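Query form — protein Coronin

QUESTION: What is the three-dimensional structure of this chain?
INPUT:
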Amino acid sequence: MTWRPQYRSSKFRHVFGKAATKESCYDGVPITRSVQDNTFCAVNPRFLAVITECAGGGAFLVLPIHHTGKVDPHHPRVSGHRGNVLDIKWNPFNDHCIASCSEDATVKVWEIPLHGLMKNLTVSWKELQGHRRRVGLIEWHPTASNILFSTGYDYQVMIWNLDCLEPVIKNPVRTISHHTDVVLSMSFSTDGSLFATTCRDRKIRLVESRSGNLLREASCKAHKASKVLILGNMKMLLSTGTSRWNERQMVLWDQDDLSVPLVQENLDGSSGVLFPFYDPDTHMLYIAGKGDGNIRYYEISSEKPFVHYLTEYRSHLPQKGMGVMPKRGLDVSSCEVFRFYKLVTIKSLIEPLSMIVPRRSESYQEDIYPMTAGNTPALTAEEWLSGTDKGPVMMSLKPGSQVPESYLEATKERQSRSASAQLGYIQNQLRSNDGSEDANRTAEGEGQMAVVNGDGYSLCSPPRTENELLMKFHKQQEEIRRLRELLNQRDVHIRQLELEIKNMKNSHSSL
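ANSWER: The structure tokens for Coronin are given below.
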């Protein structure tokens, strides 16, 4: 019997990378020169955000996703930090909400207007003050709304609940203090009940998200981990780093036993940090090196040898960082299964890079687009904090399928209903200016919907800065003065009417 080589069948064996044309890139972007080992870029189906180089504080740029071509050097930025911005992340359930952390030891959450920035944004929606040193990494909870994790150079991991009225939050929900050095990366499980971290002390830790309890710890002398990923529901972790001979390597771990690696593979002798990206829908792993032009991709299976090399995308343009488009923002008509946004510092360029499965048919390919995590939260912040864990709310990528309503659209609808109710109340008040007692009683009964400083109670946001507080105070004083004048005018009018009635009675009596 003749020997035949054994080839593994895979629908992703021939995936290839397709770089965008010059017209579809973002040109003239002053990308940050920071040496922090972060991706410096965050993407969603509406906006692209990238940390930029600037003097006097930190800033990042937010561009509409279709705003390609040459970028105006004076384009408005988000510039409310006093120190350099180190990391940015979009809210997975609100395409207009982004969080940023900085060297000024704060985390800020920003609300981006519907059509993008028309002027510099300097006032944040929330400011989180709890870290004693600069904050280098932030992550949103994958299934609970408005839960944010942050970690800084004080070696603390803090959990924040943004569902509160205060614009400045100084007390986190919980502080996790298991690390003895700077946390380099953080990755959540599918339902967000666990997260894994890598640290400069060379240890990988698996922690319960809510309680902060340390479950397992891996310490491998032959592997210095810099980044870690929890591989979906496969009960495995993947870390990238360097060996004791400074070779770049990736290591696969059993989530339930971190004592010995499952797979340990050396890649090359370069010095740049390796960024791993995992797609749980296709089980594909992408590894891109900082300063490299190539991207390796693999397929992960639950059986030995676990990691299967597919191929490699090569380019002469080195990347400093990379953003990743969520699955709901991909072009399914061209069989696109992943999309990177490469930050090319030497050309001040952001280049979209699509990973495509070659198919002849132009119809929707259900086998490469299973149900994926959508943009609807499975839990509220209070439900998660009370002890509930749920997997993500799934959605279909098939064109024409019912897309779940996003958290932002639901919020807009609630605000629209509230604004309509207040508008109707104001119109009723204007119609009832005849001073009748019934109208006055109606106004008193609806006093809870009164308008303050031109805004309803439900739409009136609290002041965020001292200047804004002074402006609100002066505006309120002006409102009080105007109301007093109206009351005085009403009293004068009442006296005039009383005098006219008295004169009429006297004239009738004389007749």
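ADDITIONAL NOTE: Residues 1-5, 403-408, 413-427, 432-460 have pLDDT under 50 and may be disordered.
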